[in-house]
C-alpha cells in the first residue's frame, strides 16, 4: 500500500466517522455552533491532514498518528474517581481555582458553570455556548482559521466541550485558575477539546494549564484554544506538558490582542511521545506587548515541534519569542518561528531566538527563525543556535571541585532558567524549577502527589 493511499484512507476514515455521528455531534449544540461545525467539516474534506509537503509541518508527520484507530470521545465516558485519592496537580503555596477536563470533557457534570468574583465565569464550553450564545458567538471560531489548517478544521467539526472563561470589563481575578487536562481510560483514545478565553477591556487573569496522562494506553490530543484579550487587558498563561511517551499532542493557541493589551505565555514541555505546539498571535491594536516563551526537554525518541506566527498588524507593538531546548538520546525536535511586520506597523520591536543543546550525536533539531518585514522603522532580530555544552564552562566548574555530572546539570539548568524566570506566578515558578531539575536528572517526572507512575 502506498503512502498516498494510507493518507487518503485516514482522511476518509474521519469523514465517515463524522457522517455516521453527526446527529450525536449536533445534539446539545446551538444552531450557530453547528453551522460553524458544518463549514469546518467541508474545510477538512478539502484540506485533510497536513503532511511534510506543508512547510509549516515539514518536520512532523501527523498522518501516521491518526492511522492508529483511536476511540474518539464524541460523548463523555462515565469514569468517576476521587481526585484527592488518585491525582492532585497541586503547586505548593499556589492558591488556585482548579478546573478538570477528563478526556476532553468538563469533569464536574453537576456544576457546569461557576461564577467567580466580579461576575467572571468559568466552566464547560458546551454549556456556555447554550447559556451565553451572544457572547460565545461573538468569539467562537473567529481567531482559529479552519480554512488554512486541516487540524483546526477537524477539531471544529468535532467540537463538543472544553473550558470557557469570561472576564468582564474591569474585573481582576486575583487567584490563578488551574486547568488540569487528564487523559484516563482502559483503551486508546482521541480527544479534541475546544477552549475559549474572553478577557474584556481593563480585565486581568492568570491561567495555569497542566496536561497529564493517568493510565497506560496511548492517547492522541488535537486541541484548539482561542483567546480574546481586550483593550488594556492583562493575561498570564502558563502551560506544563507532562504526559507519558505513549501520548501524542497537537495543540493550537490563537491569541487576538487589542490596543495596549499584554500577554505573557509560557509553555514547559517535560514529557510526551510527540508534541506539536502551534501558537498564532495577532497584535490587533497599537501598544500591544506579547511575550511567548517555550522550554522543551526531550529524550528516548521523543519529538517536539514548536511553530509560532507573530503578526504585527499595528504600530508601536512589542513581541519577544524565546524557545530553548535540551535534547538527549535520539530525541528530535523542530522550531519554526515567523514574525510578520505589516506595512503600517511602524515602530515595531520584535525579537525572536531559538537556542538548543544536543547532549548526544543521535539527537537532532531543525530550526527556522524568520522575519517578514514590510515597514521601514522597526527594531527586529532573529537567531538560532544549536550546540553542545560549553566545554570551557564545564572545565571551570570541575576545576572548582564539582564532579562532571553535577557540572553538566548546573549548565543545563542555567540554560533553561532564562525561560523559567519568565513565569510570573512565584509559587508556580518554584514548582517548575523543581520539576525541571528532576527531569534533567532523569528522575521520575510527575506531580508530587500523583499516584500514577505514568512516565
Brief sketch in words of this structure:
With 455 residues, this protein is of the alpha/beta class. 24% of the residues lie in helices and 37% in strands. The chain has one domain (3-440).
Key terms:
disordered N terminus, twelve-stranded mixed beta sheet, globular, disordered C terminus, alpha/beta, ten-stranded mixed beta sheet, 455 residues
Blueprint (SSEs and pairs):
Layout: H1 3-26, H2 31-47, E1 71-72, H3 83-86, E2 97-102, E3 105-106, E4 113-115, E5 121-124, H4 125-131, H5 133-139, H6 150-157, E6 163-167, E7 177-183, E8 189-191, E9 194-199, E10 204-213, E11 219-229, E12 234-242, E13 247-257, E14 262-271, E15 274-283, E16 289-298, E17 303-312, E18 318-327, E19 332-341, E20 349-358, E21 364-373, E22 379-387, H7 391-398, H8 404-420, H9 426-440
Parallel strand pairs: 1-8, 2-7, 6-9, 7-10, 8-11, 9-11, 10-12, 11-13, 12-14, 13-15, 14-16, 15-17, 16-18, 17-19, 18-20, 19-21, 20-22
Antiparallel strand pairs: 2-3, 4-5, 5-6
Helix pairs in contact: 1-2, 2-6, 4-5, 7-8, 8-9
What structural category characterises the helix and strand content? alpha/beta
Q: Any idea how many domains?
A: 1
N→C terminal distance: 34 Å
Mind telling me the C-alpha Rg? Answer: 21 Å
Amino acid at each position: 500500500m502506498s503512502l498516498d493511499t494510507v493518507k487518503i484512507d485516514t482522511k476518509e476514515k474521519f469523514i465517515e466517522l463524522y457522517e455516521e455521528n453527526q446527529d450525536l455531534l449536533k445534539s446539545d449544540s446551538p444552531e450557530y455552533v453547528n453551522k460553524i461545525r458544518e463549514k469546518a467539516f467541508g474545510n477538512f474534506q478539502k484540506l485533510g491532514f497536513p503532511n511534510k509537503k506543508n512547510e509549516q509541518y515539514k518536520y512532523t508527520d501527523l498522518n501516521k498518528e491518526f492511522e492508529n484507530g483511536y476511540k474518539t470521545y464524541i460523548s463523555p465516558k462515565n469514569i468517576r474517581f476521587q481526585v484527592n485519592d488518585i491525582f492532585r496537580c497541586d503547586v505548593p503555596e499556589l492558591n488556585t481555582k482548579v478546573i478538570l477536563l477528563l478526556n476532553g470533557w468538563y469533569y464536574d457534570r453537576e456544576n457546569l458553570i461557576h461564577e467567580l468574583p466580579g461576575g467572571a465565569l468559568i466552566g464547560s464550553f458546551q454549556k456556555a455556548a447554550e447559556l451565553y450564545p451572544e457572547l460565545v458567538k461573538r468569539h467562537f471560531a473567529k481567531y482559529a482559521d479552519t480554512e488554512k489548517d486541516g487540524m483546526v478544521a477537524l477539531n471544529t467539526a468535532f467540537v463538543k466541550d472544553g473550558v470557557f472563561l469570561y472576564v468582564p470589563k474591569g474585573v481582576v481575578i486575583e487567584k490563578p485558575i488551574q486547568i488540569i487536562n487528564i487523559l484516563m481510560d482502559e483503551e486508546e483514545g482521541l480527544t479534541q477539546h475546544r477552549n475559549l478565553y474572553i478577557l474584556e477591556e481593563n480585565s486581568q487573569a492568570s491561567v495555569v494549564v497542566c496536561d497529564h496522562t493517568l493510565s497506560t494506553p496511548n492517547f492522541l490530543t488535537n486541541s484548539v484554544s482561542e483567546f480574546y484579550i481586550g483593550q488594556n487587558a492583562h493575561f498570564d498563561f502558563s502551560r506544563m506538558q507532562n504526559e507519558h511517551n505513549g501520548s501524542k499532542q497537537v495543540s493550537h493557541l490563537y491569541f487576538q490582542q487589542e490596543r495596549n493589551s499584554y500577554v505573557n505565555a509560557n509553555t514547559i514541555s517535560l514529557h510526551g511521545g510527540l508534541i506539536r505546539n502551534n501558537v498564532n498571535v495577532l497584535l490587533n491594536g497599537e501598544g500591544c506587548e506579547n511575550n511567548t516563551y517555550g522550554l522543551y526537554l526531550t529524550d528516548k525518541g521523543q519529538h517536539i515541534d514548536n511553530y509560532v506566527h507573530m503578526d504585527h498588524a499595528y504600530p508601536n507593538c512589542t513581541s519577544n519569542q524565546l524557545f530553548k531546548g535540551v535534547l538527549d538520546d535520539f530525541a528530535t525536535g523542530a522550531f519554526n518561528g515567523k514574525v510578520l511586520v505589516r506595512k503600517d506597523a511602524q515602530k515595531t520591536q520584535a525579537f525572536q531566538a531559538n537556542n538548543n543543546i544536543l547532549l548526544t550525536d543521535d539527537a537532532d533539531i531543525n530550526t527556522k527563525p524568520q522575519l517578514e518585514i514590510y515597514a521601514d522603522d522597526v527594531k527586529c532580530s532573529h537567531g538560532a543556535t544549536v550546540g553542545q555544552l560549553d566545554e570551557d564552562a564545564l572545565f571551570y566548574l570541575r576545576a572548582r571541585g564539582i564532579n562532571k555530572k553535577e557540572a553538566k546539570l548546573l549548565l543545563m539548568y542555567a540554560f533553561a532558567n532564562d525561560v523559567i524566570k519568565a513565569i510570573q506566578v512565584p509559587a508556580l515558578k518554584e514548582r517548575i524549577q523543581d520539576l525541571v531539575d528532576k527531569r534533567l536528572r532523569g528522575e521520575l517526572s510527575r506531580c508530587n502527589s500523583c499516584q500514577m507512575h505514568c512516565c
